[in-house]
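Course assignment 3, question 2. Fill in each field.
Student: A.L.
Task: Predict the tertiary structure for the chain below.
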Amino acid sequence: MNELVTYTPPSPAEIEGTLQLALRLSKTNFVPAAYRGKPDETLACMLTGRELGIGQMQALRDIFIQNGRPAMLATLMAQLARRAGHKVTVLDHTNTQCTIQIHRHDKQRPEQPLTWTIEDAKTAGLLGKDNWKHYPKAMLWNRAVSAAVRRDCSEVLGGVLYTPEELGAGDTDVTWGEVEVDQAIGEVYDSGRLDGDSTPAQPAGHVAPTLDEIRQVRSVRAAKELVQAAPEPFRSRMPKAIDALHHGEPRLVAPRDFWALADLDQWKQVLEYAVELHEQQQHETSAAGSKAPPAPAADPPSAPGAASPAAGSDPSSNPGRADRRTREGSTESAMTPGLDDPVGGDDDAAS
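Answer field:
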């Protein structure tokens, strides 16, 4: 039998300290877009995490508000169940079904397995959503885990019983590929418009990232958040930068594929080149009407191991300005980065 734990509310001093932290964090790229510029929502999320016994930063990554109700990622549900001593086991996981079994620590026998199938998704009207079209295996894992934990050990959820998608979070932007999947466990990090607003929150006074900020990026997730916190003119440079640097690599040239597959060094290279493109455009705009010709665009940095063109060689023989400008014209509208922030999931995986 589970022991009852007495809840100790935060003291006024703790609330004030957490509020001051929320005020600072809500101005940074370390929180999802739904919380940026919203210190009160940030504080509420941090206090919800306190009640669940998780860290403040994890709470900001894994807990969201959808239609006025808190929701958490399925990865966090699995983590909380295991922390309480319950076993969460994947018995079957394919593109058409996922079966999860919970074995409570206070019972000798496991609970009945719970299966979510593609037919269940069809009945629920989910198959028309982009995430279900592109990531059915991952979405089935999400649904099966949340349903199993909710049914067999709901006490670990602290009243946060559903995932954002189950509460109606909208599709992510299919054009920019605003979805991230942990391939080891099939968890989808899906933000949708988690605050229920028609317009996602933006950081106050946000500007394009600088080269110094890009150099300080330490993860792919941070690189993506840097793009999403940037203004639209900068985000529109991203497909051009991707095409210029990876036009010869079918694996990465499509914006959606780059979003899903690029490593940290590739993200930094594209971001740095996007900064150059953005600064060039600003220069050309400010110089409009003047007699001075605009500065030519810088050639993209070479990929690691790529041979440099010989001095005086014809620009048309390498991905230089002329060829790149032709490609840029064809990719101008290929990708408009979404404003929704892909929220992080915990790496704790179902066994």
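Instructor remarks: Residues 264-286 form the longest helix (23 residues). Residues 12-189 form one domain.
Grade: pending
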